[in-house]
Write a structure and sequence with these properties.
Elements: H1 19-28, H2 31-37, H3 43-48, H4 50-55, H5 61-68, H6 70-87, H7 96-108, H8 117-128, H9 140-180, H10 184-190, H11 198-214, H12 219-247
Helix pairs in contact: 1-5, 5-6, 6-7, 6-8, 7-9
């Protein structure tokens, strides 16, 4: 039985036919299966593998709450809170009202929703380990204050991971663009240009010709000519890439 005086359900959840909910449920199943996947036994692993979780696309807390509903996820969080209180000392009494209050406060707060589920579970692991110096009776105020401080630092760490992932993605795109680039010599010869003058030399030459030519041509005519030149370049690149693919052995 869940340690909460509310019955967990899917109130407030996305419709089951919503594509976002379908994607999450396809990976994590229904609410009981979610509770099994992100149960107490997963805390230690999540605590040690937050970066791996973020890079692997483990959903944020917001996605989980929207998919399964606040009451359902609060039941799961209540399990973690209860287990943490029991581990923090034999003299700790588990107040079901306090557990329910803390769990729903966490689910309802915007402060924690951008954290990954791995980071949420990591908090409870650190809580049990005495990381937050909570002494005496465990109250909602003490737990939520510790969670707020933790969330600020942890969100910064996740943002850093996301930043590094974006840098890696951009570098991969640049590398892909370099691999697919048409060599200057190939393009220059196709246009009847001496490759030895180099790309920058050719650009300087074209700029000079365009400046002199512009004195005799209207802006509209120059635009048409530039556009036609661009179309020829794009067409050549497309033909070149097609021929390169056909030439590669299968």
């Amino acid at each position: 039985m869940l340690p909460s005086n509310r019955r967990p359900d899917n109130s407030g959840a996305l419709a089951k036919t919503d594509p976002r909910a379908l994607a999450v449920r396809q990976q994590y199943g229904d609410l009981p299966q979610l509770c099994k996947t992100f149960g107490v036994s997963a805390q230690r692993y999540c605590a040690k593998n937050v970066e791996k979780a973020v890079r692997s696309g483990v959903p944020t807390f917001a996605v989980i709450v929207r998919t399964y509903g606040e009451d359902g996820v609060a039941g799961l969080i209540g399990l973690h809170i209860t287990e943490a209180i029991l581990r923090m000392g034999e003299d700790q009494d588990v107040d079901e009202y306090d557990v329910d209050f803390i769990a729903h406060a966490i689910c309802e707060s915007e402060r924690f929703r951008l954290l990954s589920m791995a980071s949420i579970l990591r908090f409870f692991h650190l809580l049990k380990c005495g990381e937050f110096d909570i002494y005496g009776k465990v109250t909602p105020r003490k737990v939520l204050e510790a969670f707020r401080k933790y969330a600020i630092d942890q969100q910064a760490k996740e943002n850093r991971i996301a930043y590094e992932m974006e840098k890696e993605r951009q570098e991969q795109e640049r590398e892909e663009a370099r691999r697919n680039a048409v060599p200057w010599e190939v393009w220059a010869e196709s246009q009847g240009i001496d490759p030895s003058i180099g790309f920058h030399g050719w650009m300087a030459q074209k700029f000079k010709e365009t400046t002199e030519y512009g004195r005799k041509k209207t802006t509209a005519l120059l635009f048409v000519e530039v556009l036609e030149s661009l179309v020829r370049i794009i067409t050549f690149i497309a033909d070149y890439m097609k021929s390169e693919k056909q030439a590669k052995p299968k």
